[in-house]
Amino acid sequence: MANNGAEAIDHFEQQPFDLILMDVQMPVMGGIEATESIRAREMRRSWVMSHEFKSVSIIAMTANAMEGDRELCLEAGMNDYVAKPVKPQDLYAAIDRCLAPESNEDSAPSLPNATLSATSLDLTAAARDLGDRELLLTMAGMLVAEWQQHLGWITTSLRNREAAQLSMGAHTLKSLLAMFHAEKARRLALAIEHAAKPAAGGEVDWSQCIRLADALAEEMERLKPEMDRFVRGERTV
Q: What is the tens place of the pLDDT at every residue in 154-197?
């Protein structure tokens, strides 16, 4: 039990959890901010642990069952959403979805297309999560310098029908995009990563992978000018 979001983060740092039920409205620090902080800390851990890392599942619990609240929770990095008053069957269903065997750190439900219709990039949130603007600037410079290399990896893997390489390239790019809160591009990279790893006995849908890769390339093209401006010092956060 935690009395507020700050305590929730402390508990998260002290021991591993399979699942967190995160109240959205809390004193000191709310559930949205606490979740964003937990995801940022997990992201830093994943850089070290790579594929051995598993993210904790987080279910939002809120009395504000208004349109858009679910999307807000998912954008913060939560895996699912349960409205108060909590109905046991709804809570159990959300837990089952989060803890199913095929579930992993990227199993959050997809946001409606409308939510991701605009290019998304939040450098202010990225600087807050990382806690060091200069380090963020350095990381941005590295990403910009390797921009075409990451896209080229995906393109080459598609052309050669190398599913493992495609999944790895998308995974790497997804992690980098998450650092800069480039949510639309991150989710497209995530979709490619999953599409390149079909369920046991299944086959890769290369047509779907190509469509996703085209959408990712288009979104990356939209993001590039903003990243360039930040690296050149023309955009502050």
A: 999 999 999 999 988 998 898 888 888 888 898 888 889 888 98
Written as one string, the DSSP assignment of 45-85 is: HHHHHGGG--PPEEEEEES---TTHHHHHHHTT-SEEEESS
Q: Write the pLDDT tens digit of every residue in 49-75.
A: 544 557 899 999 887 655 567 777 877
- Give which of 220, 175, 180 is closest to 193, Cα–Cα: 175
Q: What are phi and psi of 235, to 5 degrees?
A: -130, 125
Q: What whole-number distance in Å separates Cα of residue 20 and Cα of residue 58?
A: 5
Report the distance separating Cα 234 and Cα 33, nearest Å: 28
Q: Write out the DSSP string of 190-214.
A: HHHHHHTSPPTT----HHHHHHHHH
Burial class (CB within 10 angstroms; exposed 0-12, middle 13-18, buried 19+) of 176: buried
Longest Cα pair distance anywhere in the chain, in angstroms?
53
pTM for the full predicted model: 0.55
Helix/strand/coil percent split, the chain, to 5: 60, 5, 30
3-state secondary structure of 22: strand
- Give the C-alpha separation, 139 to 217, whole Å: 20
The contacts of residue 5 (CB under 8 Å, 6+ apart) are 22, 26, 28, 29, 30, 31, 33, 34, 37
Asked whether 62 and 31 are in contact (CB, 8 A), the reply is yes
pLDDT above 50 (res 110): no
